[in-house]
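Lab notebook: predicted structure, single chain.

Context: the supervisor wants predicted structures on file for every construct in the current expression panel, including those that have not yet been purified. This is the next one on the list. No modifications to the sequence; it matches the entry in the shared construct table.
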Amino acid sequence: METVRSEGDVVDDGPLLRGNRQIQCDVLVALAECRNHRKWFASFAEPFLGDSPIEIGSGLGDYAREWIPLVSSFTATDADPVLLLELKKEMARYPEVAVQQVTLPYADRAEHSCLIAYNVLEHIDDHVGALRSMAGLVRRGGYIVLVCPAFPFAMSPVDIATGHVRRYTKRSMRAALAGAGLEEVAVRYANSVGLLCYYAFTSLLKKTPAEGGTMKFYDRLVVPVVRFLERIFVRPPFGQSVLAIARVTGDGGDQAGDAEADRAAGPAGTAMPAGTAMPGGTAMPGGTAMPDGPAGAF
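Prediction complete. Output recorded below exactly as produced.
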């Protein structure tokens, strides 16, 4: 698989990218201010990164910068040719980082230790096909870490403008993972207060997240409290995001075939690896060993 494209190899897939680019960029810039939120959500992926992860939809590289110091090599990607050029500039200072253009579904194969895709899957009509493409970029036993917006009732003009075609529940996320032949490790909601604030701000007040006081206030004063409560005391029954951790059990594109074989084998079929979250979504205790070693940190 090609690891780095020169600027001349950037393909303008503009017609294939859904949503208003200006609003998308404005939201990315606004979110870049939210340091506490970014560090919180970046921590979800940390136990699963391995040595050579790939991020799908790196945007301006804000999350990538949180993970780069933790790994030997890192691949940052984006589908948008304009963002990709900015991403290359941002990542030029990191010799261990490769930057490439990836648009899902993606035919190439690779052997990355982990794939992270935050706020990507909701943009793609064939999300099961996209998950199979993701699996093709991860070696057997590696992980896929997803964060997606939660609850269809919160679909707002901002969602539409930024190209979202759906928001997820735990049930719909599990169905997508199963359809792609991925082994569920954990699926849960995160940022409970964020959902209420987002719904009020975007659906009731009809506003768009932007740089400035509101975002800074929420990030500096609210996020640390919500993070503490959700980590120490309770797994919320709702949240602004769905967090999903899945394990690649087949060789990339073989995931779908493995899933069909498992279904044909019947419900008695597959034993759960030690430490795997049960299908009902029971949260893993902090420090529980994950398959192949990572400690559960969420």
